[in-house]
Specification:
EC 2.8.4.3; 6-stranded parallel beta sheet; 4Fe-4S; globular; iron; binds 5'-deoxyadenosine; binds iron/sulfur cluster; 5-stranded mixed β-barrel; about 475 residues; TRAM_dom; iron-sulfur; pyruvate-formate lyase- activating enzyme; OB fold (Dihydrolipoamide Acetyltransferase, E2P); 21 strands; alpha/beta; Rossmann fold
Length: about 475
């Protein structure tokens, strides 16, 4: 059977992958369903190790919020911790290997301190082979829970204190969207806001639809309420998070992502709105116009292309062609001329020939992305692509990745150079990580800018004249603050 036929079979099996089932749904209040366990973490410390995407980073902020409500305090040292939680990613195999390596190394610590609780959650926890491996090889893990039942963390910790066995609590399917979860955001200026969970797309290489479930949107009023609260707390920038943000609202029937952007754009106090990840499908003209016309929505779109070759795109089940993607880019650029586009690209998808890889290079040259996250294809158990014949050799994958990175780095560098001697609005995030005398901020297009200035500027938008360009960051001089200019 050819790979193409395999994809068609898959699509039939899983129904129409481009339309989620429309359902009536209400959200549930965490405060109403949380099992109250009291402050059982008083005097104790926790450490969460987060792998993978921004969604996971934000889930870790939620779990940190729950743990601190239980009395736990944070630590970054394994030996000091009473609870170590691995919030894991399943997208690529090497991330999984790293997690098991670290968990294995914690065994002596657990032997010395049997009171230590070890937890595994996130996308890996949803995978059955991982659950089996934990049961067989890593029984020193106390709790395994999935992406759909994060809100149960407090009761699971309580159970683990009284149990010698590993507790597995992994819901296969998502329940209701849970609202009012506690959150401990690290940064007081920029915040992530979930708008949608799960993915319906079933790209043939990707494990996410299996680990995060079907698409579920949060109600618009709940998202807007959270953003208002963030504005009241002094946050200046929000990033709306979802696997497919431009599918937002399809399951609710009442409104779409463009409507949500317009609503969030009205929240006073928030100055910048980002979103990730948007996908090439379903990227409507209404959405493009909304991004162009909402002054707080930044001129940056992360638009994963994955490959520049039509056969590979088809076999990836991406649902668009190279021509469609290029036309979409042209439509976006017509409406938002200063837009910055970034992307994700996979090299070495099964059966990818040298010519097909060259199509990806040529698309990169044609679009001229500001930046790209580039990945070597990683076969994932449970996804259709693992069954595709003609896996590309490791050597070819590595060489292709290197060639792609070199091409993209050159383009990114040229973009940075083109910003020299121009002035940009920069949201000041804090001190530079390497030099506390220097401040760090970002342009609307997400370029890092380093400059000297007083610490009072942190959290404000300032004008910076760019004097030096490196590939990944710019250096500049303070011109004035936006506030002063407005007066
Ligand atoms: N192998 C390599 N990269 C992958 N991605 C998703 N699944 C895989 C895989 N099996 C990449 C895609 C996606 C990004 C988040 O991770 O490029 O956009
Ligand atoms: Fe969903 Fe495809 Fe993105 Fe995976 S790569 S999360 S399947 S859209």
């Amino acid at each position: 059977m050819s790979d193409l036929l395999q994809i068609e079979d898959l699509t039939q099996e899983s129904g129409d992958t481009h339309r989620p089932t429309l359902v009536e749904r209400e959200s549930v209040d965490y405060r109403a369903i949380a099992k109250h366990v009291g402050r059982i973490g008083e005097g104790k410390k926790y450490l969460i190790k987060t792998y993978g995407c921004q969604m996971n980073e934000h889930d870790s902020e939620i779990m940190a919020g729950m743990l601190e409500e239980m009395g736990y305090q944070p630590t970054s040292v394994n030996e000091e911790a009473d609870f170590i939680l691995f919030n894991t990613c399943a997208v690529r195999e090497n991330a999984e290997d790293k997690v098991f390596g670290e968990i294995g190394r914690l065994k002596p610590l657990k032997n010395r301190n049997p009171e230590l609780i070890l937890g595994l959650c996130g996308c890996m926890a949803q995978e059955e082979p991982v659950q089996q491996l934990v049961a067989k090889t890593y029984p020193h893990i106390d709790i395994v829970f999935g992406t759909h039942n994060i809100h149960q963390l407090p009761e699971l910790v309580e159970q683990a204190r009284n149990s010698q066995e590993t507790i597995f609590e992994v819901w296969e399917k998502a329940g209701d969207v849970v609202e009012n979860l506690p959150k401990l955001r690290k940064d007081g200026i920029r915040a992530w806001v979930n708008i949608q969970y799960g993915c319906n797309k079933y790209c043939t290489y990707c494990i996410v639809p299996y680990t995060r479930g079907r698409e579920r949107s949060r109600l618009m009023e709940d998202v807007v309420e959270e953003v208002k609260q963030l504005a009241a707390d002094g946050y200046k920038e929000i990033t709306l998070l979802g696997q497919n943000v431009n599918d937002y609202g399809l399951d609710l029937k009442a409104y779409d992502f463009a409507d949500l952007l317009a609503a969030v754009n009205k929240v006073e106090g928030i100055e910048r709105i980002r979103f990730t990840t948007s996908n090439p499908w379903n990227f409507s003209d209404k959405l493009i116009q909304t991004i162009a016309s909402c002054e707080k929505v930044v001129n940056h779109i992360h638009l994963p292309v994955q490959s520049g070759d039509n056969t590979i795109l088809r076999r990836m089940n991406r649902g668009y062609t190279r021509e469609y993607y290029l036309d979409l880019v042209a439509r976006i650029r017509r409406a938002i001329p200063d837009v910055s586009l970034t992307t994700d690209i996979i090299v070495g998808f099964p059966g990818e020939t040298e010519e097909q890889f060259r199509e990806t290079l040529s698309l990169v040259e044609q679009v001229r992305f500001d930046g790209a996250y580039t990945f070597i294809y990683s076969p994932r158990k449970g996804t259709p692509a693992i069954r595709f014949r003609e896996q590309v050799s490791e050597e070819d994958k590595k060489r292709r990745l290197q060639e792609l990175i070199e091409l993209q780095n050159g383009i990114t560098r040229e973009f940075s150079e083109s910003m020299k001697n121009q002035t940009f609005d920069v949201l000041v995030e804090g001190e530079s990580k390497t030099n506390s005398d220097v401040l760090q901020g970002r342009t609307t297009t997400n370029k890092i800018v380093l400059f000297r200035g007083p610490k009072e500027l942190i959290g404000r938008i300032v004008k910076i004249h760019v004097t030096e360009a490196q590939t990944w960051y710019l250096r500049g001089e303070l011109v004035s603050t936006q506030h002063e200019l407005a007066v």
